[in-house]
Amino acid sequence: MDKAKITMDKIVSLAKRRGFVFPGSDIYGGLANSWDYGPYGAQLKKNIKDHWWKTFVESRDDMVGLDAAIIMNPKVWEASGHISGFNDFLVECKECHERIRPDQHLDAINQNAFMLSFSEMTFKRMEVDKMKREATPESPANEGMVQKYEHDIEKLATKVFGALRTIPCPHCGKNEWSHPTLFNLMFKTFIGPAEESANIAYLRPETAQAMFVDFPLVAGVARKRLPFGIAQIGKAFRNEITPGNFIFRTREFEQMEIEYFFDSKKKEWNEVFDYWQGEMESWMRSVGMDMERVHKTEIPEAERAHYSSRTVDFEFDYPFGQKELFGLACRTDYDLGRHAKFSGRDMSWQDPETKENVTPFVVEPTFGVDRGLLAILLSAYDEEVVSNEPGKEETRTVLHLAKAIAPVKVAVFPLMKNRPELVAKAREVFDILKKDVVCEFDDNGNVGKRYRRQDEIGTPYCVTIDFQTLDDGTVTVRDRDTMKQDRVSLADLGDYLWEHLK
Fold first, then answer.
1. CA-CA to 191 of 20 to 30 Å: which in 8, 129, 274, 368?
2. What would the DSSP string read from start to end of 80-139?
3. Element (H, E) at 497
4. Are 106 and 145 contacting, i.e. CB atoms less than 8 angstroms apart?
């Protein structure tokens, strides 16, 4: 199928129809961009995470795992810079009050003008406020400087609003916007019964900081020498202004993340960075992502996070455009240094040979579970014209999921549900297979309809018990991708499936 013809409507429809993803709180009208993973979606998501954990933690001797708390001491976010700097721009339409992030709607030229002008305007506004605040009768503010800054602010505001007027409101089409403000993305909560400033806490906006905070403890108990990594899978929360595009951008999401620590005096950080870039690409192939739709984007210095010496975004061709999928960054020793400064604790690692204390550099591969799952569905989705009978064609929808992550590995059918002897034998086969692989028993509708249901959830193999099974002990095994059918004896069925599912 032409990938350009795969629309989000088709993916969302399949996801809901077959139980991959449902709208959250559906019986109450839902909640904006809240999604629940249904039976097959939950299993697919688990398989993706298990495959990632097996690849990067259990199969390596230089990696350990962590499962840290979602709510951490607020000082963690003060040290990391999230409280002061984890902000997005927000503007409101004066006509219909729709709120958007302007940076997501501006072209490159206007975005640059907006960002630079707003930053300079904010700085000069802070300087004016500071001069006025610190003025006394004995030491009045420099009126000439105040007037110059206020004049500059007016000119910069003209540039800001000039850029904003290039954006039509996505709701009403007008282009009159409020003054831009900064909006902190962290979800705030309170610990204990009193909603007081002393009890403020935050839902974590990323999983990374726990791996930095716990680095001394992990290094002590894991008995690892540099280089080694800490891996974690967990939920993170961001109060996004404009979430959307199904599960691509949500306020509650899951990350699979690694912080890989190394001595920058012994290993060049670019060497470590390139190694992990290759590892990420290899994992994407192993879960069936269409690598022709994956693009590596080198992030220029002006657009990188302040702590990063290099960032590469892996972007994917979604139906709504080329957007971020996964990320890779070299965070240098910034995070460990910040936490050492703010906590007063030693965050270094002692080299057992030289006895030298080293503050490691860090390379961070980040995988979004939800975006990854969406990219996998888009890569696997296909519509094929097939012939069931001579001269009769139909279109089958199929998910060519990698066998390692398919939510159901094998489906078992009796040829006819109204023949007890066939149903009993199919149940017997199902009960044996389910001990080793995730199986599904299905006797609803004719065999052709059952095949189509299993194709749509990505089941690699279907086993049909028919009357010949009762005579000679053989079954039909049908391949999802080729639709080829093999006749296999029950005695060899386990080995056949094991070999083909590897």
1. 368
2. HTHHHH-EEEEEEBTTT--EE-GGGTS-HHHHHHHHHHHHHHHHHHHHHHHHHHH--SSS
3. helix 490-501
4. no
Given a contact cutoff of 8 angstroms between Cβ atoms, the answer to whether 38 and 19 are in contact is yes
CA dist 63 and 466 (Å) reads: 49
Q: Look at residues 305, 190, 188, 200 and name the one whose alpha carbon lies nearest to residue 238.
A: 188
CA dist 57 to 35, 44, 203, 271, 349, Å?
Answer: 29, 19, 26, 21, 21
Q: Can you read off the two tokens belonging to residue 41?
A: 């979606």
CA–CA separation, 232 vs 67, rounded Å? 6
Q: Kindly report the CA angle at 81 between 163 and 198, in degrees rounded to 5?
A: 115
Quick one: pLDDT at residue 488?
A: 96
CB-based contact 150:157 (threshold 8 Å): no
Q: Measured between alpha carbons, how far is 382 from 259 in angstroms, rounded to an integer?
A: 36
Tokens 């030491």 identify what position? 139
Q: Phi then psi for 416, rounded to 5 degrees?
A: -135, 135
Which residues of the chain are modeled with pLDDT < 70?
A: 1-4, 85, 242-243, 389
Cα 371–377–379 angle (5° rounding)?
100
pLDDT at position 2 is 67
Evaluate whether 380 touches 405 at the Cβ level (below 8 Å). no
Identify the helix (H) or strand (E) that includes residue 393.
Answer: strand 392-399
CB 21 within 8 A of CB 377: no
Q: Are strands 410-414 and 439-441 parallel, antiparallel or unpaired?
A: parallel
Are the C-beta atoms of 442 and 412 separated by less than 8 Å? yes
How far is residue 248 from each of residues 214, 424, 487, measured CA to CA in Å? 30, 44, 42
- Residue 1 confidence (pLDDT): 63
Identity of residue 315:
E
**At 72, which amino acid appears?**
M
The CA distance from 132 to 139, in Å, is 11
Per residue in 319-336, pLDDT tens? Answer: 999 999 999 999 999 999
Residue type, 249: R
Contact 456, 449 (CB under 8 A): no
Q: Residues with Cβ < 8 Å from 380, sequence gap 6 or more?
A: 288, 399, 400, 401, 402, 458
Rg of the Cα trace of the chain? 28
| Amino acid 261: pLDDT | 98
What is the pLDDT at residue 3? 65
Q: What tokens appear for 296 in the block?
A: 């590596």
In our burial notation (b when 16+ CB lie closer than 10 A, e otherwise), range 228-249 reads: bbbbbbbebbbebbbbebbbbb
Burial class of 454 by CB neighbour count within 10 A (0 to 12, 13 to 18, 19+): buried
Partner residues linked to 258 by β-bridges:
231
- The number of beta carbons lying within 10 Å of the beta carbon of residue 1 is 13
pLDDT at site 461 = 97
Q: Per the structure block, which two tokens stand in for 281?
A: 């690409």
